[in-house]
């Protein structure tokens, strides 16, 4: 699945729910995940993985066009840690 619509179609078919209800669920899940991450809380998706927020320190970098040294500000980034079942499936076992 490469698009949101493909995800909605597959979930709708698998669960027997309407596409509208499935789309509402997918949208709500995304909204809830953004809300939790914005508050610094982790999001656990059973059998899929975990989303957390990681803090990156400020550091020095270089402008690739000029070579000039620049400071890259500290920031927070979302990090996904896949569940063991997902890692196994990616390696061709445990489907």
From TrEMBL:
Domain of life: Bacteria
InterPro entries named in the record: Hist_DNA-bd, IHF-like_DNA-bd_dom_sf
GO biological process: chromosome condensation
Tagged with keyword DNA-binding: yes
Keyword list, A-Z: DNA condensation, DNA-binding
One Pfam family cited in the UniProt record for this chain: Bac_DNA_binding
One term of GO molecular function: structural constituent of chromatin
Recorded GO CC terms: cytosol
SMART domains: BHL (SM00411)
Record-stated family: Belongs to the bacterial histone-like protein family.
Functional summary from the UniProt entry: Histone-like DNA-binding protein which is capable of wrapping DNA to stabilize it, and thus to prevent its denaturation under extreme environmental conditions.
Protein name: DNA-binding protein
Organism annotation: Candidatus Methylumidiphilus alinenensis
